[in-house]
Design brief:
Layout lengths: L7 E4 L11 H7 L5 E14 L20 E2 L6 H13 L16 H9 L5 E5 H7 L2 E14 L7 H9 L3 H8 L4 E2 L18
Parallel strand pairs: 3-4
Antiparallel strand pairs: 1-5, 2-4, 2-5, 2-6
Length: about 200
């Protein structure tokens, strides 16, 4: 988006205070801050093998001998969350078997676990639900769309935003485990900041 390759980008980057998403990163990366529209809130956590045979109950269990994980790439919101959780408990990625095994999609993480090539990986509840895997919730995250202001009112962008209010779309998304669409399609502001009054 910053280099002009797209008009809209998705983002779910947790800020250092863990109370908000995206705003700090957007201010740092863009001279002209894009509009931020909520797509959804979704539940992130550890996707685990069916029936959790390794008895993984907390992040610290990932450091046990014999526990294998799969990971998301650097730069993704999920990897940022994962590394923050490890830092909080003083566990280094190098102490975890499989920490360097990176997969681009949440579904790929789930499929590695389903195939028995890993015991755990951070991902979204929807994937655990689709693949009938166990899930250890960590937190709900805000997943937003960043939209360049100079194209915000262009017809293609507005058509996409209209879709976010479509009953059929909302019913389909709400049928998935781990999604909350109460704020879907709404412009979001940093905590404590209100919509400017005329």
């Amino acid at each position: 988006m910053r280099t002009g390759l797209c008009h809209i980008a998705s983002s779910h980057l947790i800020q250092e205070n863990e109370e908000d998403y995206n705003f700090g990163f957007v201010k740092k990366e863009f001279a002209d801050v894009p509009a931020i529209v909520n797509f959804c809130h979704r539940e992130q956590g550890l996707i685990l093998s069916k029936d959790n045979p390794r008895n993984i109950r907390a992040f610290s269990d990932l450091g046990r001998s014999g526990v294998r994980i799969v990971n998301r790439p650097l730069g993704t919101g999920t990897r940022l969350l994962f590394d923050n959780e490890l830092r909080k408990i003083g566990l280094s990625g190098e102490e975890i078997e499989g920490y360097g095994a990176e997969f681009d999609r949440h579904l790929d993480v789930g499929l590695e676990i389903l195939a028995g090539r890993a015991d755990a990986g951070l991902g979204i509840a929807a994937v655990a639900g689709l693949l009938e895997l166990d899930f250890l919730p960590i937190r709900w995250e805000r997943f937003d769309l960043l939209i360049l202001k100079d194209v915000f009112f262009d017809q293609p962008v507005q058509l996409l935003l209209d879709l976010l209010h479509d009953d059929e779309f909302l019913a389909l998304a709400n049928a998935l485990k781990g999604y909350d669409l109460k704020q879907c399609g709404r412009i979001v502001f940093p905590k404590g900041q209100r919509i400017p009054q005329k």
